[in-house]
Design brief:
With 90 residues, the chain is an alpha+beta fold. The protein is 20% helix and 43% strand. It is built from 1 helix and 6 strands.
Length: 90
């Protein structure tokens, strides 16, 4: 499948109140009107904003991604789309 065939749509952005927390927003992302990924996070770090995939904590107290991109280009496009939407919604 060509990456051009993937259509990413921001379904919802839930901004958290301004403050000192690192997580700035939760985002739901649709892919080709067939898949919904809920709970992507916009996180603020010393290096700037980045997008974190949904995670859950295992019994061993470690955090694991619930959704993983197997292709770095797809991951980059998702991050770009989410951050563009986050910045324009301000």
């Amino acid at each position: 499948m060509s990456l051009d065939a993937l259509d990413f749509k921001i379904i919802k952005i839930h901004r958290l109140p301004e403050g000192n927390q690192r997580i700035k927003a939760f985002v739901d992302l649709g892919i080709n009107d067939t898949i919904l990924i809920k709970g992507l996070r916009v996180v603020d770090t010393d290096k700037g904003l980045f997008v974190s995939m949904p995670q859950e904590q295992g019994k061993n107290s470690r955090w694991y991604e619930k959704v993983r991109c197997l292709n770095q280009e797809v991951r980059s496009r998702i991050s770009q789309k989410v951050l563009e939407a986050y910045k324009t919604q301000a």
